[in-house]
Design brief:
Number of strands: 4
Largest sheet: 2 strands, antiparallel
Distance between the termini: 8 Å
Mean pLDDT: 85
Low-confidence stretches: none
Strand content: 5-15%
């Protein structure tokens, strides 16, 4: 299962450590070298919710990092559009997580 960091929108294969935050445990990933942010409530609650075009831009970056083939990319982008249209209020990182995990 692949997670998407809500802070920097990079794919993270898994979370390695749990640390106790202010109210509940937060995840810290050791494989996402671009971002060292704790997955705390502040970051999760402030994650952005953009339009389909913004999702496709971030989806393109994720597809490139994960080296998806052309067929997987098409399926990934179609899934992003489908989920965004059905559940418009979801945060971007959740939509991207659902879409990428349905492709891989």
């Amino acid at each position: 299962m692949i997670h998407i960091c809500p802070y920097c929108m990079n794919p993270v294969p898994h979370y390695d450590n749990d640390y106790i935050g202010e109210l509940q445990p937060v995840n810290v990933d050791n494989e996402n070298f671009n971002c060292g942010a704790l997955q705390s409530n502040v970051i999760l609650n402030n994650a952005k919710c953009s339009n389909i075009q913004g999702l496709k831009v971030n989806g393109g970056k994720i597809a490139k990092k994960l080296k998806l083939n052309q067929e997987q990319k098409e399926l990934f982008f179609n899934k992003i559009i489908e989920i965004k249209r059905k559940k418009n209020r979801l945060k971007d990182y959740i939509i991207l997580e659902i879409a990428i995990n349905s492709v891989i």
